[in-house]
Design goal:
The chain has helices spanning 21-42, 49-67, 70-77, 83-102, 105-112, 115-124, 129-137, 145-153, 155-158, 160-172, 189-194, 202-217, 220-241, 246-252, 258-271, 273-287, 311-321, 327-338, 375-397, 407-410, 412-428, 432-469, 476-491, 518-537, 539-550, 557-563, 572-595; strands at 178-180, 183-185, 342-343, 355-357, 366-368. With 597 residues, it is an all-alpha fold. It folds into three domains: 3-158, Butyryl-CoA Dehydrogenase, subunit A, domain 3 (Up-down Bundle); 160-173 and 226-307 and 389-597, Neurolysin, domain 3, CATH 1.10.1370.20; 177-218, no CATH class. The strands form two sheets. A three-stranded mixed sheet has the order 3-5-4, with helices on one face. A hairpin with an 8-residue loop joins strand 4 (355-357) and strand 5 (366-368). Helix 2 packs across helix 6, helix 5 (105-112) runs antiparallel to helix 8 and helix 17 (311-321) packs antiparallel against helix 18. The longest helix has 38 residues, at 432-469. The chain is globular, with a radius of gyration of 24 Å.
């Protein structure tokens, strides 16, 4: 459908951010005036603790106003083919860039302030105290104030590679129909990723993969050029700021060591691969496939037992499954459905995948997905509601600056919801076929998505950044070879890499978000251990979890995990999680043989 054909109740209500575009632009004017005031009244004067704190509280208010600009960016996410939406989002982005360019002096002046001034400011800063500490942590990487101002001013253009990628993917790519056994099938980006990858009919599924791959390959060079520009930008910025290498630059903001990053990739590539190959063989056996190909990996273990579900069904499943999180949490879930936090329509030009945005100071979150009525969608929705629950707790407990949660654990609150939903479903029905179906959802959706899909992306990203860090560049041919090598290493000869599998590097927006991909498995490692605690201990563990979620960015990843009772300073939790995944796959094999499939 076109966006204007979508029923209103399938869309989110952006009036929860601002009443309308007019009000949003009024917030933009307030933002601009505040930037002018800060520059005029405080530039060159932050050598006094009281003035510094006063300035930072106004700067904090600037960020709160900037959160209102999400009105335009979220509107654009629903239809990149609408020129008016794209223009408005770009205009809002330009306003934001201009305002933060004027206030870029703040970081430099904090770095150059006397220690006594900073100590007093930290002592009396309230919601801006941790921000000052964070600026001091990065002090040695700051450049001359005028250089920082120029870099801030160029921020809008530094995001251009991602804009090019999205426009090529969501606006320029036009998919035609494909034909299987005399029947025509429509094809689109969201249709392929949300529907055809799970299609039971092998001929249709593999034909969809072939036609989808043929289309995106036509855009491989422009996509590679955009990505090369993005990773080269990261390399140059890291060099300018004096980081040891591009990895240190990208990991700094998340306060994560290279050891934790490498461990997450290396251990999973080595230890999880044998389990997932066994899972692939199970899919081949159950579906009686002549061979197991890359186009078959998203199949459900038991599609005949995978009922279609409505949004009403989803609300009940999720609310009942997350009841252990307490009455307030369940009330938030019902509020999300009732007050239209969720945009679940499938329309042309809409961003693919799913995400949750929680603008600071707004009493709602905004969840985007393309609903296909499968149980997999219920798990996706539970996942995104986990983000909503996290930032409701975090935003209510912390000032704006302390809600910049490190990405290492940002996926923990989302993935734990999927695991709690699994635990609930297992208890509702003792039937072995139902249990196998639930285990299939957990392995095939929760763990496959986070521990396989995103982890393989992370392994691929690491190789790309190694090339760039050594002074090289990457083109389409290079990127396809890297991705194919990663897939071959993980799947071995168990899975035939269908032509087009190597183009998977073209499909994920995460590559334009630093080293985000590896954090999915990191977050799920923490949530796997935490879920076990909650199911065993109940309310005391839930309280620990909520306390950790409320801490926002006042804690680093190791401290966050510790608050939840998980020690990620060793590889123990990761190895335990991999063993748990393997045990579920073993149990599915046993149930399959027991059921006579």
């Amino acid at each position: 459908m076109k966006r204007n054909e979508v029923p209103v109740d399938e869309t989110w209500d952006l009036s929860l951010i601002c009443k309308d575009a007019k009000e949003a632009w009024a917030k933009a004017e307030e933002f601009k005036a505040l930037a002018d005031r800060i520059e005029k009244e405080y530039k060159g004067r932050l050598n006094d603790a009281a003035k510094l704190v006063e300035c930072l509280h106004l700067f904090e208010r600037m960020h709160e106003l900037a959160a209102k600009f999400d009105y335009f960016s979220l509107d654009m996410e629903t239809d990149y083919s609408d020129a008016d939406k794209v223009t408005a989002a770009n205009k809002a982005s330009a306003v934001m860039t201009e305002g933060f360019t004027k206030t870029s002096f703040i970081e430099s002046e904090i770095a150059n302030a006397d220690d006594a001034v900073l100590e007093e400011a930290i002592k009396n800063g309230g919601t801006v105290s941790h921000y000052i500490k964070e600026q001091l942590r990065g002090k040695k990487y700051l450049l001359h104030p005028e250089t920082e101002k120029v870099l801030t001013a160029l921020g809008e253009f530094m995001g251009s590679p991602y804009d090019v990628y999205l426009q090529a993917k969501l606006s320029d790519m036009k998919f035609g129909d494909f034909t299987v056994n005399g029947k025509n099938y429509p094809l689109g980006y969201a249709l392929f990723e949300d529907e055809y990858e799970y299609e039971v009919d092998t001929d249709v599924r593999r034909a969809a993969f072939r036609n989808f791959s043929d289309k995106i390959k036509q855009y491989e060079n422009v996509t590679a050029a955009a990505y090369n520009a993005y990773v080269t930008r990261d390399k140059r910025l890291g060099e300018l700021r004096g980081y040891k290498d591009v990895f240190d630059y990208l990991l700094f903001s998340d306060d994560v060591s290279r050891e934790l990053y490498d461990r997450q990739i290396d251990v999973i590539m080595e230890k999880l691969a044998p389990h997932m190959r066994k899972y692939a063989r199970l899919l081949q056996k159950v579906h009686k496939l002549d061979k197991m190909t890359y186009a078959d990996l998203k199949l459900s273990v038991d599609p005949g037992f995978d009922p279609r579900v409505t949004m009403e069904d989803a609300e009940k499943y999720i609310a009942d499954g997350l009841k252990v999180m307490g009455d307030e949490y369940v009330a938030m879930i019902h509020e999300a459905f009732k007050k239209r936090w969720i945009d679940y329509a499938t329309n042309d030009g809409k961003c693919t995948g799913g995400f949750c945005a929680s603008p600071y100071g707004v009493p709602a979150s905004f969840i985007l997905l393309s609903w296909q009525g499968r149980m997999a969608d219920v798990f996706t929705l539970a996942h995104e509601l986990g983000h909503a629950g996290h930032f409701r707790l975090c935003n209510n407990a912390q000032g704006y600056f302390d809600t910049m949660v490190p990405r290492y654990f940002v996926e923990s609150p989302s993935t734990i919801n999927e695991l709690l939903l699994t635990g609930y479903l297992e208890k509702t029905n003792p039937d072995p076929r139902f249990k196998r179906w639930v285990l299939g959802c957990t392995v095939g959706k929760t763990y496959y998505h986070n521990f396989v899909t995103h982890l393989l992306e992370a392994a691929y990203q690491r190789e790309v950044y190694k090339i760039v860090d050594a002074g090289g560049s990457v083109q389409a041919e290079t990127l396809s070879k890297i991705y194919k090598d990663i897939l071959t290493k993980f799947w071995g000869d168990t899975v035939e890499l269908t032509e087009g599998a190597e183009l998977t590097w073209m499909r994920q927006p995460h590559y334009y978000m630093g080293l985000y991909s590896y954090t999915y498995s990191a977050g799920l490692t923490i949530s796997t251990k935490m879920c076990k605690r909650i199911l065993e201990e109940g309310e005391p563990a839930v309280n620990d979890w909520k306390k950790a979620l409320s801490a926002g960015s006042t804690v680093n990843p190791v401290e966050f995990a510790k608050m939840a009772g998980v020690d990620i300073s060793t590889d123990g939790p990761l190895l335990d999680t991999i063993e748990y995944i393997g045990s579920m796959i073993d149990e599915m094999w046993e149930l399959t043989e027991q059921l006579g499939f």
